[in-house]
Design goal:
- The complex is a heterodimer of chains A (525) and B (288).
- Chain A has 21 helices and five strands.
- Chain A is globular, with a radius of gyration of 23 Å.
- Chain A is mainly alpha-helical.
- Chain B has 288 residues and is mostly helical.
- In chain B, 57% of the residues lie in helices and 0% in strands.
- Chain B has ten helices and no strands.
- Chain B has helices spanning 4-14, 29-51, 55-75, 79-104, 119-143, 151-155, 159-169, 173-194, 207-217, 265-272.
- The longest helix of chain B has 26 residues, at 79-104.
- The relative contact order of chain B is 0.05.
- Classes of the chains: A mainly alpha (525), B mainly alpha (288).
- Chains A and B meet through helix 1, helix 2, helix 6, helix 7 and helix 8 of A and helix 1, helix 5, helix 7 and helix 8 of B.
Chain lengths: 525, 288
């Protein structure tokens, strides 16, 4: 034993570029602080302090990000913490996107005017339907732990899009998922539905994580390392059996596509989107999508770029399946939240087209297009869910489509904004949705995926039908006498919806600035 | 001074043959025997876990699998991993698991009703298909791989544990630190889902406050008398009798109507000393 100990050398600590990862450290540090506040503060002070801390964190992290992005930094990015985290241009873009989208989501989460006391239950541990539960329904407290959970999820997402090896990526995947599973089950109304959503998401998510981990193990067996660049090197020139590589790739991608709610791995999406509290749904739909596709883009372009001809056909098929499922099943939905969920499945298909648009020369025109699409889609979705939370009757949100009939006569402004957002989701010109689809499809054509683009255009047309159906329903139907009322939102929800709608409009009219920024650099390899 | 168990453990961990002695890509007879004993055991444990109806049985089957895997790790030159598997997984986590199962109630078993027709058959077919695909592809891929062995990692630079530690604090430092976020979230989640606070209810009174309150109200301070227990009755409805033979009202529970006094007349008489006196011949029976 002594002999072995004597052999051990002093280990060298890895270099850490604190400036580059400052936004990440701020978010994770604030999340820990937020947990402490939860323990130390009396109940009535928590909401205000947590809100200030969370919003301050987001602003501070964005500030750190802007400071680093505008300072002197290597053009191709840096890999810090022994190569575990890669801070390159796409990372910075994705971080900025996540932070800004999280800002909007936190505003929705914190709102207490639309639903008195907020969308979250006062005490989640009380069983639904009991006497105690009925007693707490009249109280206005909320489970303020959602704030630290949001920050942890955000920290996980930021790590996920920047992780440069598969092990860090796996831990980040868990860090982003676990808080989301919890937050899904905390709805104030329809608690059983909410808890069911949480259990479904948790079980299926754990299953998907297992796939991801198995994939990582096989890829480690193939390349002898979990670093993305090492996998690329191993795949470039080797006489090793490719079976491990492709089996590992398949399993890894299943885990990633599950989180992104793509195609045949979407089965959790409608139930979870419907059951979760609407602000959490907005957070999941916008930020999780960004994180998952950020991860997919990095894995595909850094680790598997050499082998694209082998896997491209598979993801091609997945994209088609995703678009068809989203568009066709979206048509049959009668619930607004489920409809947006299926629309997100269709959008995941469009995003996947951008993700697999790699040219044989090794450039990836799809990366900047997908980044832009993610930003645009995130803002539109947050605003759309913000609107959904406003249409209410005595049971809470009135999400059944028939209840939305004639909404324009009750509240022309809300109906008008929602119409605009639905048009953006459908991809009508003058909205960010159109520009997003346009850049993704042109990148795909550049990469030789023209047939896929044709399928995508047909799917968009089919999907546009169900958005238009809602618009027609809102404007050309008579409102039911006992229909829902439109709540006048407080400042937070108003800001979140306005932010989403304005960004959707601005990116539709002047997308150049963001497009240029999204295209400034490639992934560090 | 150190504990004997720690000594044994450290000696085992330190017990590494010289690199030259180690033949990396041959399987010794002992290893083969251990594999063919433990492999089927691990598989049987996994299947048992799936098919056991009772959750506690499932957990115990899983323990079998984990123990077998732990020993297999040790045989395959990964002693630290093997010990961790047994101490942490089987020892700590599985026992915690059993505690939780016991708390939740062990009779809650799975529903066997199929919600979607043919779901179980389809799931079984797909599962078996997936397993065949994985075993086939991994088996095929691994037959062509040259095994490397852990001889080098286990003998240089601090050995097995030392190298794991070095990796943990250099290459995987961030993943290691990030795990803390996961643990905090898990703890927070458990609190949210299980802890019911006392807000809205007044704080519980202390013992001292209760005593003072009782004296201030001027009520009876001592305990009230219990019901009477007589030869003929021991029901709570039986009143206690005071020394003078009268019924003690305090011994009667308010909601229970007291037993009819006529059924107690013998006992009353006995206490008052007016009943028939004991007969010294009574024990002899009727023959006398």
């Amino acid at each position: 034993m002594n002999l072995l100990v004597a052999q051990a050398q002093q280990i060298e600590a890895p270099q850490i570029d604190y400036g580059a990862i400052a936004p990440l450290l701020v978010v994770l540090g604030a999340a820990c602080m937020s947990v402490l506040l939860e323990a130390l503060l009396p109940k009535h002070q928590r909401w205000a302090v947590q809100l200030v801390l969370t919003l301050g964190t987001l602003v501070g992290a964005t500030g750190a990000l802007i400071f680093y992005a505008t300072s002197e930094r290597p053009a191709q990015g840096v890999a810090t913490l022994a190569g575990a985290i890669a801070v390159d241009s796409p990372s910075l873009f994705l971080w900025a996107t996540l932070l800004v989208l999280a800002f909007g989501s936190v505003l929705l989460i914190a709102d207490r005017s639309v639903e008195p006391g907020g969308a979250f239950v006062a005490q989640a541990a009380i069983r639904p339907g009991t006497i105690q539960d009925r007693a707490q329904a009249t109280k206005t407290g909320m489970q303020t732990e959602v704030f630290p959970l949001t920050l942890f999820a955000l920290g996980g997402m930021m790590t996920f899009v920047a992780s440069n090896d598969l092990l860090t990526m796996f831990v980040a995947l868990e860090v982003l998922s676990l808080p989301l599973y919890l937050m899904c089950g905390l709805a104030r109304r329809r608690r059983l539905l909410s808890q069911e959503a949480a259990v479904k998401y948790f079980l299926l998510g754990a299953f998907a994580s297992a796939f991801f981990l198995y994939g990582v193990a096989l890829l480690y067996g193939y390349a002898g390392s979990v670093k993305l660049s090492a996998i690329a090197t191993a795949a470039a020139g080797t006489d090793r059996s490719d079976t491990l590589l492709f089996a590992g790739f398949g399993l890894l991608v299943v885990g990633l596509l599950f989180k992104a709610a793509v195609g045949p791995f979407h089965s959790w999406t409608p139930d979870v989107y419907q059951g979760a509290p609407t602000p959490v749904t907005a957070f999941m739909a916008a930020c999780t999508k960004v994180a998952a596709f950020g991860g997919i883009l990095r894995v595909l372009t850094v680790a598997f770029e050499n082998t694209q001809w082998e896997w491209r056909g598979v993801l091609y098929g997945v994209a088609v399946v995703s678009m068809v499922i989203g568009a066709v099943l979206g048509l049959t939905q009668t619930d607004v939240k489920r409809m947006i969920a299926y629309s997100s499945v269709a959008h995941a298909g469009f995003l996947l087209i951008g993700s697999i648009a790699l040219t044989p020369e090794g450039t990836a025109p799809g990366v900047s297009a997908t980044l832009f699409y993610l930003l645009a889609y995130g803002f539109t979705t947050i605003a759309a869910f913000g609107i959904v939370s406003l249409v209410r009757n005595s049971d809470g949100e009135a999400t059944h489509l028939s209840q939305w009939a004639g909404l324009a006569k009750r509240s022309p402004i809300v109906a008008g904004v929602f119409t605009f957002l639905l048009l953006a989701l459908a991809g009508i010109p003058l909205t960010s949705g159109f520009i997003g689809k346009f850049v993704v499809f042109s990148a795909a054509i550049e990469a030789g995926l023209a047939p896929l683009v044709v399928i995508a255009l047909v799917a968009s047309a089919v999907a546009a039908f169900f958005y238009l159906r809602v618009i027609v329903l809102m404007y050309f139907s008579e409102p039911a006498p006992d229909g829902p009322t439109v709540t006048v939102p407080g400042a937070f929800t108003t800001i979140a919806i306005t932010l989403g709608a304005v960004v959707t409009l601005v990116l539709g009219l002047w997308p150049t600035f963001v497009l240029d920024w999204a295209g400034t650099g490639t992934f560090l390899s | 001074m150190s504990l004997p168990a720690v000594d044994v453990l450290s000696q085992f961990l330190a017990q590494q043959p010289e690199p030259v002695q180690r033949v990396v890509d041959t399987v010794t007879t002992g290893e083969a025997i251990a594999f063919w004993v433990l492999g089927p055991l691990a598989l049987a444990g996994a299947l048992g876990m799936l098919f056991a109806r009772n959750a506690v049985h499932s957990a115990l089957w899983l323990v079998v699998t984990m123990l077998s895997l732990g020993v297999l790790y040790m045989i395959q030159q990964a002693p630290f991993l093997g010990f961790v598997q047994i101490i942490v997984y089987t020892g700590a986590i599985m026992m915690l698991f059993l505690f939780v199962l016991m708390m939740v109630g062990r009779d809650s078993s799975d529903s066997v009703v199929e919600v979607i027709r043919g779901q179980r058959l389809a799931a079984a077919l797909l599962g078996i298909g997936f397993a065949v695909l994985m075993v086939g592809s991994v088996g095929r891929a691994l037959t062509s791989v040259q095994s490397k062995g852990l001889a080098e990692a286990n003998t240089t630079n601090g050995g097995n544990v030392g190298n794991i530690g070095t990796k943990l604090f250099t290459d995987y430092l961030f993943a290691f630190e990030l795990t803390s976020a996961l643990l905090i979230t898990a703890a927070l989640g458990a609190m949210i889902l299980a802890f019911v606070g006392r807000d809205g209810k007044p704080a519980r009174k202390t013992q001292k406050e209760l005593v003072e309150e009782r004296f201030q109200e001027g009520k009876r301070v001592g305990s009230i008398p219990g019901p009477g227990v007589f030869a003929t009755a021991n029901s709570v409805a039986t009143p206690a009798l005071l020394p003078d033979g009268s019924v003690s009202e305090e011994s009667l529970f308010e909601v229970i109507e007291a037993t009819d006094s006529s059924t107690l007349s013998d006992d009353l008489a006995e206490v008052a000393g007016t009943g028939h006196q004991p007969d010294s011949h009574a024990l002899k029976g009727s023959e006398s």
